[in-house]
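Input.
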Amino acid sequence: MSVVSAPLLYESHTHTPLCKHAIGEPEEYCHHALRRGLRGLVFTCHAPLPNGWSAEVRMSDAEFPTYVALVERARQAFAGRLDVRLGIESDFMPGLEPWLERLHRRAPLHHVLGSVHHQMAFYRERFFTGDVAAYQQTYYEHLALAAESGLFDTLSHPDLIKNERPSAWYFPRIKPHVERALDRIAATGVAMELNTSGLLKAIPEMNPGPEQLRLMRERGIPVVLGADAHRPDRVADGYEAALDLLASVGYTEVNVFLDRRRHALPLTLARDSLR
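Output.
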């Protein structure tokens, strides 16, 4: 008779309909987390930004209390069955630090993702000059600054820029800039995400790809798993493949954040716990 391992893993990157491009109520995401054998789920919906920037793909500032209430409703509904936590995915660019500091104090957050969303109009108009190679370098500079800001627990989908223009992505060319950024990130102790939704993007591989993931492992940068779920059936999607990828580049642990503190889980136990 086979022995079912106790639930260990969390989905650490999950959205709600408040971001205007996700579907399904929080409780539906929770039900799928139970079906996948997860211990818990951290909601990390897109944070509001000042001046109504990219309002079409995120909650408004006025909706933040609604978001907190939605997650609390799910937490109560699944108490004793699934550990439901409140987090946030906040955009970073230089100059946003005061806004983010105030936002992150408005509720007790368990996991704060820092994202550089190169595709957003507010970001592009400031940093894209038409030179794609320079834009890639700026992206990695801003990832390092995000880690150094002390605002974030984990940097999400940390090679997302490769989808800016896939034909212009050549890792050996950008590698020196990646290495410099990773050296700075490693010095902060901030984690980085292995985001399985990259398999659905223009370059169909996880974010980051194996070359960058190997560089992260060489520097001892901890990794958090996230499926970036925008619909319930994507909770923990691709986790088995992600855990295998981590093992293939030399990782032995994967991490979760609770109360903004990192907890390490052995890869083998984490994989065995999935259903």
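Residues 171-188 form the longest helix (18 residues).
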